[in-house]
């Protein structure tokens, strides 16, 4: 407990704390919420909410009836520019919707409810009650709709796309005996148990090493040098501990219900940050696999161990931080009940008003600058009495055992504090709301603090309210994903010692302390099921450099017969699920617990299965891979060799518009259920052994991890002595103590300004965070284990038409008449389409399905919903469960299937702290998804010169897809029996135009359209369009499309209404504004080849000038094929003699050959066609030369731009760091000045009091002197009386003796 004066920094608010009072904290009232009545605790679905700054508005904010219209069965709320965005207010809208009636007397309750919901959706879809203070997102799994099961694309799963029936495997293990020098030796074999995938088949694989330690040894990256910029998220805030004590007292059973009571209790205490241990582990962190390398193998923070340390659940719902818009948050069911609980609606308004507090006006605020500090949030819900000052709780956690502090606070207009010293729940909020308010603080500071340093974000409120509402969430995967992401950002930095990262160091330090036991202090643990984090509660920190040195020794040590190695199973040993057969089936228990629960087994499955951990935070999704097979010993399994494979993620921080669908697909993959017999549980105290094949494989790749501490220090010292590298801000005391041979003038605190300068570009490239491209490894034995068949894309449109009795080529104008159907599947399809729109997010389009009358209306609703999140309409609807996919002989319903969805919009749109552990051949952020040329349903345009002997187009062939006949353009049939010499690589692909029903007209499956390109002497007519020609059928390809490097720009299939501008020409596909439904072809934007780059325009090129002689000829056309070949060969020799070919030489040879050819009496047309074709080749070669020259310049400029961008990013990062440091120093300076002011005031008051007390002291001294003299007189009088009394008593005794009978 605090015993002294001081000051607490509470944001911009200053809090003075006086001496500890003698008044105890008030006793909390008995809790009223128990396990028995949890379900009856009000959730507030029937109540409106009002923010703290909202006042009762009887007139303002009402629903304006003049703005409501209904057209074509749809409501509209016509807001003008002057209409407030946050109107109408809930207090008016909610009763208005419930009282709405319709004129139809025959309408039943369901119809009235649907009308109310539709009108409310229209009003809320245009309202922003948050006043622009935050960015809204869609939920991955909408709560009022059935969850859709979707998985990532097979390409994203990579090696792990093969489905196995087992997770564990029994095999014969030959244990390894480690040797300090030389290869490990073999022990006696035994029957072991390993995790899949692993085995001796992978011992030939390489191992990808992305470690900071290697760069330190190479002197390319500075070491720590006693520097550590990682910030702990768990810090003291005035009032938070008292608030938590009350939460634990009153809501003990509510927290137990969702499985987080112990995890929340842990926030009562302080925990050390073992910087030295964390630095040693960070040096060995592999960003590709999220593992830590030691001399004897890999380990990592596994899910089971993290659950044991933190107490956070492994199983439950997806934890995603999202901020819902008004439509998804404030809509009601039309029957007097909201969809969301009171807590979410109220706390959202509290956050909004706290963000706007202190402003003179309340306009829309900038989203990037609107913040709510943790102190403002705490003071709003709890404002005294206080009993903790700059310290956390001790062993006593009851209010009544503590004494109060006298706190004086300065008013701060940016805060809206509760009434002072009103105790528990001063605003008398509902229980679930008050609990959710604290859980928002707890999640932001203790569990998943990614990007939350010092602030409460609105996205955290949804999940805090879900927990308070009784929803169990899987917090462990999200928290572990944020930790891995933070470690990746830290170790990918050019200077990790200066990288500012906020991490839950209490979790990390606890795991490090359990792995490296003996290097930090631990306390006792009363309950075996309590989080292991409690072992480190209120323990002190240690000297970081000594810890670092000791940890490096331990991590580089190879075990021997006399000394054991690291304890990898420190978290799971003695605490693993136990299977027990019961009459009701197989049950799973934990040691020391009598109650069985299926989550024990489910959590263990998620713990030992490779997956991707998902943490969604608003506009971004963190995707961090999780591979347990390299550290099987953590769980008691035997360690075999893992494959050098991973999930080919293109980014670890995805920010596309479909981020909620990406998160949902990876989450479904994470929670997939395996067969019960496919997993063997190890015994609770089983110790995993190391297979000798793994030991030898690891020994080959782990030289750097066995380096001695002195070798690391030597490399650190060499780098400090290098004058060609920037100086580092290192204290002189540290340098003199740890590196006495280094000249302190090279570094030190006085060189900070120099050290913050930009390092040389060569050094920057040496340790840039983005890793070099890595070729995807080939996995031994993979070909035998899996053979991936071509993917198929599912066409829900054709599936719907088939189920509902429409032909495959049904027109979009076909009516929807449910009453006329005899098929029972239509109602199921209608509900499935509504669920699909809700899954994607824009539920405002669901009402369009209720009012659609034609297939066109149905397609429009789906395509518009997909357009909101930039998703192709074909990916909006997943295969239904009520109907199997019909058989289709030509794969019209299922083609190139990909039941997961992800666009590439968000891959390149990353935050500054995103990093690429590897590239592995993954497309860059600006690459488009260009389909392969062999995809079905496309016409392929190839190059074919019109030479004698080749077939010419027959009449009627143009119906497959035509090109403008102007300027000699024509179609040439493609005959496989007559290959075209010099065919173009990277052929232009154009899909034939869609019929309304998606059927291809007159195009056999095997046929290919071959269009003469400029290389055959023709030009594509400029100014025309790709779409319908004058006949209204068939495609017209036009525009000045340049030819470069024998390649025509590759076009994906054009969707209707798609405009593409390339090289000055415009391509347009007609029919409708929205995409037409697909059949066997894709509906995607037009994209040029070469990675989306627009080809360089062909420079002006002279004609060849070859004219057929006018002289008369004699001869025969017989033997043309024989006679023409030598002439063609001679011209081609000149063309191929140099690059690019000389125009004059080619023209001379063509002219001479033409004269000779003419004199031989051979025909004109075949020859001139060949001349045109070869001249076009000359044109292409010159264009290619120009393109290569420009490409070289582009690459050079790209390199320069990349270097400048890198330097700019580094400068911005340093500016941010300096700004942060400046703010911290300013805050510290203000704190010191305030404290000095308080001390000066105290001195002044003491001086005045001293002047008052001196005269009083003199008077008191004189009185004391008089009293002393009087005391001396009284003492003498007392002594005299005592003597006289004694004499009298003696005389009395003598007289009594004289009269006694005996005498």
Q: Using DSSP, what is the number of strands? A: 32
Q: How confident overall, as mean pLDDT? A: 77
Low-confidence stretches: 1-14, 360-365, 750-790, 894-899, 908-912, 918-1075, 1079-1099
Taking the sheet with the most strands, its summary is: 4 strands, mixed
Radius of gyration: 40 Å
Work out the strand percent: 5-15%
Could you say which structural class the secondary elements and strand pairing correspond to?
A: alpha+beta
Shape summary: globular
Q: Helical content, roughly?
A: 25-40%
Pfam family, one: PMD
Domain Aminotransferase-like plant mobile: 435-698
Protein name: Aminotransferase-like plant mobile domain-containing protein
Region (Disordered): 741-767, 902-932
Describe what you observe in this structure:
It is a single chain. The chain is built from 33 helices and 32 strands. By secondary structure, the protein is α+β, with helices and mostly antiparallel strands. The strands form 14 sheets. It has a 4-stranded mixed sheet, sandwiched between helices. Strands 1-2-15 form a 3-stranded antiparallel sheet, covered by helices on one side. The protein has a 3-stranded antiparallel sheet with strand order 10-11-12. A hairpin with a 2-residue loop joins strand 18 and strand 19. It is globular and about 190 Å long. It starts with 5 loop residues before the first strand and ends in a 5-residue tail after the last helix. The N terminus is likely disordered. It comes from Colocasia esculenta (Wild taro).
């Amino acid at each position: 407990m605090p015993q002294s004066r001081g000051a607490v920094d509470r944001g911009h608010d200053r809090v003075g704390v006086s001496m500890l009072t003698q008044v105890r904290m008030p006793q909390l009232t008995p809790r009223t919420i128990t396990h028995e009545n949890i379900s009856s605790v009000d959730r507030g679905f029937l109540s409106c909410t009002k923010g703290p700054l909202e006042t009762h508005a009887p007139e303002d904010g009402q629903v304006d009836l003049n703005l409501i219209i209904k057209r074509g069965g749809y409501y509209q709320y016509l807001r003008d520019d002057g209409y407030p965005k946050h109107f109408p207010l809930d207090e008016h809208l909610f009763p208005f919707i419930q009282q709405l009636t319709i004129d139809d007397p025959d309408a039943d309750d369901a119809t009235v409810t649907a009308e109310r919901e539709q009108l409310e959706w229209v009003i809320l879809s245009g309202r922003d009650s948050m006043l622009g203070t935050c960015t809204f997102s869609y939920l991955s799994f909408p709560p009022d709709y059935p969850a859709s099961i979707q998985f990532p694309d097979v390409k994203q799963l990579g090696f792990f796309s093969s489905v196995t029936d087992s997770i564990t495997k029994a095999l014969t293990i030959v244990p390894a005996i480690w040797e300090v020098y030389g290869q490990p030796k073999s022990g006696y074999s035994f029957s072991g148990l390993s995790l899949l995938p692993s085995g001796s088949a992978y011992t030939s694989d390489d191992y990808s090493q992305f470690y900071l330690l290697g760069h330190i040894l190479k002197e390319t990256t500075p070491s720590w040098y006693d520097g550590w910029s990682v910030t702990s998220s768990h810090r003291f805030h005035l009032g938070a501990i008292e608030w938590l004590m009350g939460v634990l007292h009153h809501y003990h059973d509510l927290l137990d219900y969702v499985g987080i009571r112990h995890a929340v209790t842990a926030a009562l205490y302080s925990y050390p940050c073992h910087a030295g241990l964390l630095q040693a582990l960070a040096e060995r962190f592999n960003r590709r696999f999220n593992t830590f390398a030691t001399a004897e193998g890999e380990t990592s923070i596994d899910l089971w161990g993290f659950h044991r340390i933190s107490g956070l659940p492994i199983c439950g719902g997806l934890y995603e931080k999202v901020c819902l818009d008004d439509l998804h948050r404030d809509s009601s069911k039309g029957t007097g009940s909201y969809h969301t609980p009171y807590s979410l609606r109220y706390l959202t308004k509290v956050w909004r008003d706290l963000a706007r507090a202190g402003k003179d006006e309340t306009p829309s605020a900038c989203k990037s600058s609107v913040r709510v500090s943790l102190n403002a949030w705490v003071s709003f819900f709890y404002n005294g009495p206080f009993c903790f000052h700059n310290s956390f709780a001790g062993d006593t956690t009851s209010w009544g055992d503590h004494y109060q502090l006298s706190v004086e606070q300065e008013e701060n207009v940016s805060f809206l504090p509760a009434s002072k010293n009103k105790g528990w729940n001063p605003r008398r909020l509902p229980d679930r709301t008050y609990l959710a308010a604290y859980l928002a603080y707890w999640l932001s500071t203790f569990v998943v603090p990614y990007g939350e340093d010092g602030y409460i974000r609105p996205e955290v409120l949804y999940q805090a309210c879900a927990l308070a509402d009784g929803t169990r969430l899987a917090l462990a995967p999200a928290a572990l994903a944020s930790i891995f992401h933070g470690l990746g950002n830290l170790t990918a930095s050019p200077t990790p010692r200066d990288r500012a990262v906020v991490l839950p160091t209490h979790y990390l330090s606890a795991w490090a302390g359990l792995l490296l036991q003996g290097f930090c202090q631990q306390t006792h643990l009363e309950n075996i099921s309590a989080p292991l984090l409690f072992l480190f509660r209120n323990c002190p920190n240690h000297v970081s450099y000594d810890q670092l040195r000791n940890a490096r020794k331990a991590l580089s040590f190879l075990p021997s017969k006399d000394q054991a190695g690291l304890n990898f199973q420190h978290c799971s040993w003695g605490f693993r699920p136990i299977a027990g057969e019961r009459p009701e089936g197989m049950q799973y228990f934990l040691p020391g617990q009598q109650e069985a629960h299926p989550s024990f087994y489910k959590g263990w499955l998620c713990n030992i299965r490779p997956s991707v951990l998902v943490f969604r935070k608003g506009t971004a999704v963190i995707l961090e891979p999780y591979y347990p097979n390299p550290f099987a010993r953590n769980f008691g399994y035997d360690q075999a060799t893992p494959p050098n494979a991973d999930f080919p993620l293109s980014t670890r921080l995805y920010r596309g518009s479909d981020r909620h669908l990406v998160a949902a697909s990876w989450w479904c993959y994470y929670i997939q259920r395996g067969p019960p017999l496919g997993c063997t549980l190890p015994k609770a105290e089983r110790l995993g052994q190391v297979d000798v094949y793994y030991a030898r494989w690891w020994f080959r790749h782990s030289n750097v991890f066995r380096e001695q501490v002195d070798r690391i220090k030597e490399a650190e010292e060499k780098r400090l002595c290098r004058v060609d590298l920037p100086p580092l801000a290192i204290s002189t005391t540290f340098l003199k103590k740890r590196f006495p041979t280094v000249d302190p003038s090279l570094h030190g605190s006085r060189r900070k300004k120099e050290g913050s300068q930009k390092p040389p570009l060569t050094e920057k490239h040496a340790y840039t965070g983005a890793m070099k491209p890595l070729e995807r490894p080939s996995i031994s034995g993979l070909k035998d284990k899996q053979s991936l068949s071509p993917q198929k894309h599912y066409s829900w449109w054709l599936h719907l038409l088939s189920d509902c009795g429409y032909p495959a080529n049904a027109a979009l104008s076909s009516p929807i008449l449910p009453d006329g159907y005899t098929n029972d599947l239509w109602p199921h399809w209608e509900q499935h389409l509504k669920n699909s729109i809700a899954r994607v997010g824009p539920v405002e389009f669901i009402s369009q399905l209720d009012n659609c009358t034609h297939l066109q209306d149905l397609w429009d609703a789906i395509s518009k919903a997909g357009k909101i999140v930039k998703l192709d309409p074909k990916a909006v609807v997943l295969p239904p469960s009520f109907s199997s996919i019909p058989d289709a002989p030509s794969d019209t319903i299922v083609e190139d299937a990909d039941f997961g969805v992800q666009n590439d919009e968000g891959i390149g749109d990353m935050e500054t702290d995103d990093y690429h552990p590897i590239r592995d051949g993954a497309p860059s952020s600006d690459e488009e998804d260009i389909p392969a040329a062999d995809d079905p349903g496309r016409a392929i345009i190839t190059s074919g010169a019109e030479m004698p002997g080749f077939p010419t187009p027959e009449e009627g062939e143009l119906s497959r897809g035509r090109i403008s006949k102007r300027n000699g353009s024509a179609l040439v049939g493609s005959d496989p029996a007559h290959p075209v010499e010099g065919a173009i690589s990277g052929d232009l692909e154009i899909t034939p135009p869609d019929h309304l029903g998606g059927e291809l007209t007159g195009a056999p499956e095997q046929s290919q359209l071959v269009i003469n390109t400029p290389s055959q002497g023709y030009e594509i007519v400029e100014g025309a369009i790709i779409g319908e020609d004058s006949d209204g059928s068939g495609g017209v390809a036009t525009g000045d499309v340049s030819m470069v490097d024998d390649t025509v720009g590759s076009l994906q299939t054009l969707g209707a209404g798609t405009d593409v501008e390339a090289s000055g020409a415009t391509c347009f596909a007609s029919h409708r504004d929205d995409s037409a439904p697909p059949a066997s072809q894709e509906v995607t934007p037009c994209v040029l080849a070469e990675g989306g780059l627009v080809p360089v325009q062909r420079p002006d090129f002279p004609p060849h000038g070859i004219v057929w002689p006018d002289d008369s000829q004699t001869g025969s056309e017989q033997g043309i094929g024989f006679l023409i070949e030598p002439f063609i060969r001679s011209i081609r020799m000149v063309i191929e003699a140099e690059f690019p070919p000389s125009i004059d030489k080619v023209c001379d040879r063509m002219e001479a050959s033409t004269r000779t050819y003419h004199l031989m009496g051979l025909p004109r047309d075949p020859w001139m066609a060949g001349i045109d074709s070869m001249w076009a080749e000359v044109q292409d070669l010159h264009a290619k030369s120009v393109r290569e020259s420009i490409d070289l310049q582009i690459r050079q400029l790209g390199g320069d731009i990349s270097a400048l961008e890198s330097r700019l990013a580094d400068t911005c990062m340093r500016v941010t760091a300096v700004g942060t440091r400046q703010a911290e120093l300013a805050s510290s300076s203000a704190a010191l000045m305030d404290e000095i002011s308080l001390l000066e005031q105290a001195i002044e008051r003491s001086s005045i009091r001293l002047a008052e007390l001196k005269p009083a002291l003199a008077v008191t001294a004189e009185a004391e002197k008089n009293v002393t003299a009087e005391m001396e007189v009284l003492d003498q009088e007392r002594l005299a009386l005592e003597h006289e009394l004694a004499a009298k008593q003696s005389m009395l005794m003598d007289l009594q003796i004289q009269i006694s009978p005996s005498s």
